[in-house]
Amino acid sequence: MVLLDPLLILALALNFVALGVGRTRAIVNAVALQGIILGILALFVHEHIDLRTIVLVLVTVGLKGFGFPALLAHAMREAQQEHEVKPLIDNMTSLLLGAVGTALAMVFSSTLPLADQHTHLLVVPASLATVWTGLLLLTTRKRAITQVLGYLLLENGIFLFGLLLLEAMPFLVEIGVLLDLFTGVFVMGIIIHHISREFPSISTDHLTKLKD
Amino acid sequence: MVYLLIVFPLVVAAATFAVTSNRWRPFLLPVGGLGHLALVLYAVFGTTAPVHGPEEWLLLDPLGKVILLVQSSLFFLCSLYAPAYLSIRSDRPNRVFCANLLTMQAMMTLVSLSHHLGLMWVGMEATTLVTAPLLYFNHNPRSLEATWKYLLIGSVGIALALLGSFFLAYSGLKAGLESTLHFDQLIDHASELSPPWLHAAFVLLFVGYGTKMGLAPMHTWKPDAYGEAPGIVGTLLAGGLTSCAFLAVLRIYQICQASSVAEAAFAREIMIFMGLFSMAFAAVFMVRQRDFKRMLAYSSVEHMGILVIGIGIGGNAIYGALLHLVNNALTKGVLFLSAGNIHRVYGSKVTDDVRGALQRMPLSAGLFLAGFLAITGSPPFGPFVSEFTIVTATFASGEFVVGGIFLVLLGIVFIGMGATVLQVVQGNAPDHVPKDLNDTFATCAPVLLCMGLVLLLGLYIPPPLELLLREAAAFLEGQR
User: What is the ipTM of this complex?
Assistant: First the structure.
């Protein structure tokens, strides 16, 4: 329990890294590290650690920390540019928006009617702030790969909230969720690969042909 | 039994994946479609024993029966059409296409059967993922764009639904209950759930699964996806997948309804508002729409709106909405498949190039025209009966403003859609249209069958179906 809050603060800090850095590879690493931290967090939230918890922690760390980055690196191998090309808002502004969002998440969480055992925890504000960061990255970046990273941050935020709900998700369902996430990133990787073959870059600026 | 319904299409999917011949593989689709329909008919009408799995995570209730019946019938009709389509498109490898169609069917079945909201989420997300390669079947830049938007918007929407599901579980935890996502337990303890969390959960789940249904303003993936997808995929999305997403919305609505009068009223208000908004949005984009496949997508947005309005009004409109679900799915089958036939022959789907379809390919164009008349609610077709039921119930419940707007919007849609459809079917066909492609028995018979069912439902609703729909409506209203 002692390590819970420092780990959550580290996870929050990684949100800002993801928003602030320009190189795609650095964002991938930030999101991967956050995934590893989330996996480890599960060990601290659960009161008694059984086999089920250990398997879940291993699967989570394996997928979020190593599986997804590998899939994304594979998808990126043919895409040339490392830097974000002209995001809708620059990194400074997105950092600022991220900070405002995180502050609002803190304030908002303190007004939420939390169960008594959760009132002193940072889990809920960290979860909401991460969801916000993910949505920010999704909507303001143009490279397909960064949008996937935004989606992964969004899922990380939701995963954090899920830590409070041990009994609601049976083991099989939880594995199902992770499997879906894995397949999702896998399919997105394939599509990105096709985008990079079809167009000169993987900017979604190329994907504006369909409209009314 | 309950596992068989899910596993059977998966086994056939594996078999199609194993077949190496591009030419013979598609013929496994009708086998899978027929087998699944037979199993579904037995599970729905043939047995009185409850169909469920261990711990009742999977349970076939009346509402699930309706959805299952609709999507299985539609899949069967599409599977009859598929071999002919894929033989015309023999330039494209179809291994992934065939296997994914059947996997999609299995996942839609999982959603229809799920009584655990986490499991339902898993099924719903899986349908998004298996349909992505289906949309990308044509492998061109346009379909790539459509697939990307579909995948990203769909996944984000579904992610919000997961957060909503967690909020729902938390509403139980906050109330001192053991946190659960088991539907029946949530219903049993609905009145104890913490209201603020339930409220937030409803909003997130409605937005999330509403994105999959394609309600405005979360519908933006729909015109692109339906516009670029092959006709079969469009049909299964517009008739099957959206119905499954609708089921997910109904599940959360049931929990709200069981919790308190205020919560139920809130849910109904949102549904009526979003329904009318979707209809209005669709109407605006259908007027002067030149692309007839995108037009069908907006028609789907409109009809999803009608479904949630029906639930929002309540009473007999619920029966109307469920009947409309059946009618909409079948009519969408007619429209998407016949539009696909026309698109293929003309090599275009904009009204600038496509004219004189009645002259060039009378059967497909005739079916397209009849499908248009049916979907806009003209008698004697099925949608007329269901829309009429909803409108009557709306006025009977005193919602005159809602009823009035509903009728005006139906009128606008009729005029807007009519203009586009008539441009397609009337006049003289341009000379450059290739002469070698034509209507064939195999590409028209399944559509004709579909149209026959739409007509039948307008004239006579078979008593077992009527009974099933009544049961489902009663189930939805909480008479368990």
Answer: 0.94
